[in-house]
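dumping this here before i forget
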Amino acid sequence: MYLHHFSSRHGVCGNPAVAPAGPNGFQRFLVMADKLCVLDCGGALFHLGGGIRDPSFIFINGEWRMYLHCALLCRGVKDFTSDPRTDTSYRKYLYVLASQDVGDQDPGPCDCVEIYQPSTGQRVFRMTFHLTMKVKRITLLGVEVDRELLLLTEAGRVYSVAINELSLDRPRSYTTQLALRKMSTSRPDASVTQMWSGQSSVLYVTDDGAVYLEAHAPSVYRDLYGTIQGFDSRDTQRPLAIPLPSKVVFCSLGYKHLALVDEFGRIFMKGSNRFGQLGTGDKIDRADPFQIQYLRNPTDVFCGLNHTLILIPSMDSVKEIHGCGCGAGGRLPGWPKGSPSFVKLLLKVPLCARRISSTRDCLYIMSSYDPEEDIGYSVLPGSSCGCPGGAEEDPAAAQACEECLKQLQRCPSVQERVAKTRDFISHLPLPGYQKHCLWEALGMIQRAAESRQDGRPPTAILSGR
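structure:
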């Protein structure tokens, strides 16, 4: 795990945490209020403590490393989740989906959902399902007093059960009935394979790559669709299809915007763009999915409250993180004023980075190598080749280049043209050393222009590498 604290004094490249000896490879992680929960490849769930927000560092082999103590929480874990809001202070309970033996008389393990208090590591609630019901994913919807636990079964059906977190401190036993969501009742032939949730929305992906969205608040519906017409407060479970020309392989759901990645590695953004979190170059909301040019084949995508991060491989076999939106508090390292376009963040990314997440205090990067994991993007029909992190030659990309040249012509000064060209180069699917070379060339041109204006002979300054 690599943690980049936005107010850290230990450098801008992020601080690697001391790897605990317990987990057998990192598979997934979740940031809690003051803990870091990690699921290993063997199904064991660990929580890492030691002050995530105010960490203690030790100096090892010439670099600062964060010290975290590790403790085993549960085994046989299939999935885990917590409060869907981006503010981690609300994540007081951890929901764990596990497969465990309940008693000696049972013929096999049963799936169950256990609720833990991460601060103490104690289990406060347990829900056991029938032996024939196999669940593969869980997620939460709503706030503490109106919480819904969504369960996705291996058969592709979605169920929900109401939970009041305020009563979890009063132990009691009872039987409850699971309700089949309208996503499964209205489309019985559709098998849901993936499920994400936010505070007031749920996103489904079916086995044929179709995407459906539930919006449970009028403000969220308006930001995602640009209008309040069509929202029915009495039928918030109604799934709304999001049209795309190809199959979707994975998504990320923020509070009022979302990102979709299709089978060809293309990235589409939709929703509110008040802070430029869609990366479209402007701050105009998008009711329909908008494709992001020059970024393709992402490893991971994270949609925050008002910014977006994309983990993407470059052509020189390294990983980069590009971000857009609000940059307040240092959440876009190197871009404190934010950016309405995706820009490369100024931080060092591990070669085997697989997952990213961000809070108001810190950027989290999980580095883990799994030779069996491969998203396997397809080559877009009619294209020459698939370029890591970039787009092939297509009419849309050519049009974007022409638009950039028009914007350069409208710039009144050389300094503004150089700044605009720098931003344009950061979006090109080029290896890092080529981008660095072009940026250095632009710097020479700018210094030469400034020298002529001052009446001095032009000089060349080369930065050592």
